[in-house]
Amino acid sequence: MRAIQVIRHGGPEVLEFGTVDDPTPAPDEVLVRTAATGVNFIDTYLRRGLYPSVPPYIPGTEGAGEVVAVGSDVDSVAVGQRVCWVDAPASYAELVAVRAVRAIPVPDRVPDDVAGSAMLRGLTAHYLLDGSAHPRSGDAVLIHAGAGGVGLILTQLAKLRGLRVITTVSDDEKATLSTAAGADHVLRYSDGLAEQVRSLTDGNGVRVVYDGVGADTFEQSLASTALRGIVVLFGAASGPVPPFDLQRLNGAGSLSVTRPTLAHFIADPEELRWRAGEFLGAVADGDVDVRVGQRYRLADAGAAHTDLESRATTGATVLIPS
Ligand code: NDP
User: Fold this and answer.
1) What are the Enoyl reductase (ER) domain coordinates in residue numbering (predicted)?
2) Cα dihedral 33, 278, 51, 313 in deg (nearest 10)
3) For a Cys-Cys bond, which of 134, 198, 293, 317 suits 39, CB 3.0-4.6 Å?
4) Which residues are CB-contacts of 194 (< 8 A; sequence separation ≥ 6)?
5) How far is the C-alpha of 6 from the C-alpha of 58, rounded, in Å?
6) Is the CB of 313 within 6 Å of ligand 1?
């Protein structure tokens, strides 16, 4: 099969397209012919060596496609079924082995590119609202990178729950997208951001800040949070947040800070199925509109990484193995 490999840690140039052996499904796995592969920030952290990984390896954890073979112990998934997944290694490839218990059936009304590139972001948005924090109807929240893959979905899910949503974006096009997703107020990043957030919330600040940008936004996130509120630091698009003195949370208003990761909110297959069912159901019913902003051929994965890391993308990013 054809696949992308990370041949050493480094920039997008270390992604090499070539031919490798087909995977053989283990007894509890299914083999999927990939129709769409999601490109996520975690793929870039691993490629750079920011998170542990040992090259050479095939990157990617997310995709969608048709089951072409099943392992000897599998009776829950059948050949010919459309499935998607968020946590199978080696997904930048034409064939991917996926544990049957982690293969999620795709509703007919959800296209391959959406199922293959929005599940990881969609399940993240789901647990951010119902897992790492629990904002209630009427609460104000701040979502950084409101026009990003997670940001657009999180905004829509937050509005469905009756939250008041303030977002940040870096340019006019992204502001338009964030507004269309339902954001009540769209702001630009600035040193005065927290003051703007407070003036939109009667001086109180927001109940929850969702910060996937990290280094560049964390201080403003703290300053934007209401008494006893929570900063959910869930990513590091601009770099990791430096070491932090916990005593500051006292002076800032008895705040909480959490640093969650999706894997811990879908480890139990039942929880995975619940979150996936709710998210895919909302997409299939038209309650959440997933924007696949960029499509690349599998061979052009390097360009996809370059664009994602340079803030040139909106919504989800997908590779098509064709
Ligand atoms: P996005 O589509 O949101 O892309 C990142 C966005 O961050 C950019 O488009 C940009 O938007 C903003 N940004 C601000 N500063 C920078 C910078 N210096 N370099 C790059 N981007 C910057 O990505 P995803 O939706 O895929 O992921 C969003 C975040 O969520 C990432 O940090 C990712 O790691 C994290 N994540 C965390 C998960 C978890 O469970 N913890 C799971 C999934 C994702 P703008 O130009 O508007 O500022």
Assistant:
1) 10-319
2) 80
3) 317
4) 205, 220, 223, 224
5) 6
6) yes
